[in-house]
């Protein structure tokens, strides 16, 4: 029942709403029609307004042009009035400037000159403009001359307030570069005096250079702190001060180095260069560390110029590193004695020379990395090859001397031979020395390859190949990331072809591996030949006693007496109870060498025992070469 009532109410509401909508529809249509008419009327009005505006523009265009021309005339008249005013102001200032100069007040004079400079800018089109410019420059020169003693005093006393005043004055009159010239001159003069005193002192050369570089470094820190309070771009200003100082030294650093190295002996030249370069390297690294926080804000061209001023004096000597190292090594190895009067002393010296040789070679590698940072690797290899060649030559000469001492080349004599195994024992020690040479050579070559590749990897880019056009890694990609101290490369600047050879060497080591042992292959071959000579010497020392005993056989009494044959009959056993002396000796030698009688030795024994008339028969069936040698030794006809 309730649901029916609710439905009835809803139906009634819908019916009432529909009825009202039908009643309101005509009125809504009338409103829409009225709105449409008003919009049409507004459109017509807008067209009329637009037409009125067009007519107004046409009528007033000529008037506007006249107004523009009038405004231009007004502007020119204003400019002329300003020019006349500035001309009058210039005349007034020119008349008053002499009185102002009499006050000697730099700030007041500067203000007057600044006003005159502003006035002159307005008089650029006047006929006497150039004369006024000359006059103004002359006044600026007078102000600079007047202020110069005070400027020098301010810079020498490090007065911040006075310096700021002069910076303001010179900036206003457009003479900031001239003010910086005073600054550079003051501090450069002080540094040059320090250099003169050090150069004339009696201290060692490397100490002179170290002390001067310490002064330069201290100047960098103190002046950077002071100039930050006075100038803009303080780091660039102090960098230029360092550049100008290094360029103005008397004697200059190149002349200083040349004189020092010319006075040094050939033996001391390389060590002196190392000491001097170490002083410069320490200064460069310290200065780089001081610059690093400001490097992104600095003028990298000026930093590069400073790097060149510091490092360039050493370039000629670093390019000659290979020759200097070779001379030094040859002098050092020549001082290593291999030849001695006594045999045992010679053998001892040969044994001790191995450690000395590789100590020199390792020292050369250390010097190369310290002095050239690995860039002198090609020169190092050349010097090492010369070192090993000299050593092998001296070693070989000593072996020949030992051969003479042991009389291994003498013709056997008829004198009684004294048994002596000293030569053989010495040869065994020499063989051990040669083995140690080969072992240490292999180890050294491995270490050399590793150290060269480690130090030189920074020069070899990943994209490099021997056929590539690029000579090496590109400098840092981003400008802010560049570091001119790390980019300086004396070898690439001074000898590009040698730098290319270095990169090829590093590339080969990288591709084939450091265990390839290719750097000193020729030298290892020479050491191997030395080893063979030592073995030959040992062989000769063993068989010389046998040769001498065999040489004495034909001259023994048993072979020369007529009754000798009667004592040697076929009935004797192969080994008699009382063998002859030389047979005993040969047996002892064979026992000492661990040898057993062979068939050939038995054949020799039968030929030696045969009577002269039975030798031909005994030789039948034996090797012809063996029988001929024994019969010739017995001085018999075959």
UniProtKB/TrEMBL annotation:
<keyword id="KW-0333">Golgi apparatus</keyword>
<protein>
    <recommendedName>
        <fullName>Conserved oligomeric Golgi complex subunit 7</fullName>
    </recommendedName>
</protein>
<keyword id="KW-0653">Protein transport</keyword>
<dbReference type="GO" id="GO:0000139">
    <property type="term" value="C:Golgi membrane"/>
</dbReference>
<keyword id="KW-0175">Coiled coil</keyword>
<keyword id="KW-0813">Transport</keyword>
<feature type="coiled-coil region">
    <location>
        <begin position="25"/>
        <end position="59"/>
    </location>
</feature>
<dbReference type="GO" id="GO:0007030">
    <property type="term" value="P:Golgi organization"/>
</dbReference>
<dbReference type="GO" id="GO:0017119">
    <property type="term" value="C:Golgi transport complex"/>
</dbReference>
<dbReference type="Pfam" id="PF10191">
    <property type="entry name" value="COG7"/>
</dbReference>
<comment type="similarity">
    <text>Belongs to the COG7 family.</text>
</comment>
<dbReference type="InterPro" id="IPR019335">
    <property type="entry name" value="COG7"/>
</dbReference>
<dbReference type="GO" id="GO:0006890">
    <property type="term" value="P:retrograde vesicle-mediated transport, Golgi to endoplasmic reticulum"/>
</dbReference>
<dbReference type="GO" id="GO:0006886">
    <property type="term" value="P:intracellular protein transport"/>
</dbReference>
<keyword id="KW-0472">Membrane</keyword>
